[in-house]
Amino acid sequence: MEILAVSDVAAQYYYDYYTPGRLDRFDLILACGDLDPGYLEFLVTMAHCPLVYVRGNHDDRLLEEPPEGCICAEDRVVVVGGARILGLGGSFRYKAGENLFTEWQMRGRIRRLRPALWWRGGFDILLTHAPARGVNDLDDLSHRGFQCFGDLLDQYHPKYFVHGHVHRNYGANIPQKVQIGDTTVINAYDHCEFTF
After folding, report:
1. Which residues have C-beta within 8 Å of that of residue 123, sequence separation ≥ 6?
2. Maximum distance among all Cα pairs of the chain, rounded to whole angstroms
3. In this structure, what CATH number is given to the domain that contains residue 93?
4. pLDDT at 183 > cutoff 70
5. How confident is the model at residue 172 (pLDDT cuts 50, 70, 90)?
6. pTM for the complete prediction?
7. H, E, C per residue of 64-77
8. Under a CB-based contact definition with an 8 Å cutoff, are residues 129 and 7 in contact?
9. CA-to-CA distance for 165 and 128, rounded, in angstroms?
10. Residue ranges making up the domain that contains 156
11. pLDDT tens digit string along 41-90?
12. For the chain, how many structural domains are there in total?
């Protein structure tokens, strides 16, 4: 399965400079948050494949106006083409907002998902906005990752962990892909293509 992951900014190659057929080869699009709903609707329309998304810290508007034709994976396991996708959007709480969480709150979201994870036999892709603590995150509060995401990787060993939030232009040494045990961690800022 060919997957396109996007996050934080509209990928110019697939939007501003789009040509017909450019998205045809993808079987799934994963959106990691902080993206305009019109952009997501454009992608799902032109790609003719499912688009699964989570909300970013700047996506409060998506609570009332979700992008049409897209699948919200917040706080659930979505299955597409045999891939079990666990969605946990938002970022570390650094101010008031609907999509900002403390470590304790994010752990509570995960705890409520335990029955679904047991029933599905785990998950293959962890789809989030924020990174895990110590993996692609930064030291400032607004870009801190969640320790509980690392705990999920340790317990379930998914094939992929796809996140956004930490823009790769924030520094010269921010990788797009890194391997943590059995899991390939992908920073989907702008876009990243991979195969499941």
Report:
1. 77, 84, 85, 86, 117, 156, 158
2. 45
3. 3.60.21.10
4. yes
5. low
6. 0.95
7. CCCCCCCEECECEE
8. yes
9. 9
10. 2-195
11. 999 999 999 999 999 999 988 888 999 999 999 999 999 999 999 999 99
12. 1
